[in-house]
Amino acid sequence: MAFNDDSFIREVNEELRSDQMKGVWRRFGRYIVVVAILIVVGTAGKVLYDYWDDNRSSGTGDQFLAAMKLADENKNDEALAALDKLEKEGHGAYPVLARMRAATVQVQKGDTVAAIAAFNEIGKDNAVPAAVRDAAKMRAGWLLIENGTYEEVSAAIEEMAVPGNAFRHSAREALGLAAYKAGNMAQARQWFQSIVDDTDSPRNVANRAHMMLDLITASGKAPAAQG
Question: What global pTM score does this model have?
Fold first, then answer.
């Protein structure tokens, strides 16, 4: 499904103006998460590509591409078997890439619990490069928005929501959405405001943050700070 971020935000704002607040999150919450996670996947993909490009190992490259093809064809069990073999027998970057891809295949299968556990395990493995660990933590954090608590999301990714971290924009957005979903509007406002206040925030992330701040203000549960 393709998303137009600007038109989506305009549609939510129209709902706000028509005073249909109660249904806004119920109607749009899942789509807000889906639209936002595209950036996470894109950023994580670049990190993984850079890692692969720096550690090419032609001996197992064809096997990895074959496993990817199986996953793309939704032959998930076959893909997982091929990726498990690569994790155990592959060279260079491929064992780590196989672990990341296998966790993604678990999401495709609908086994979110297994996927979160796999991403968390990668995120805690000091043998894995730091950039890849961060990518794994972000994937776990975003899955936990719909499948865990705010505290679990925070434990996974809050350490990345700091100036200078490449994933800070995605981390702040995930934390804001998790707080909003938990009904903690004051905490959600703080995270979304931190996105708006960061002049380096990507435009579409900042636009969504503004939209969420409007939702929070309209809820009456965490009024805008008076300045």
Answer: 0.73
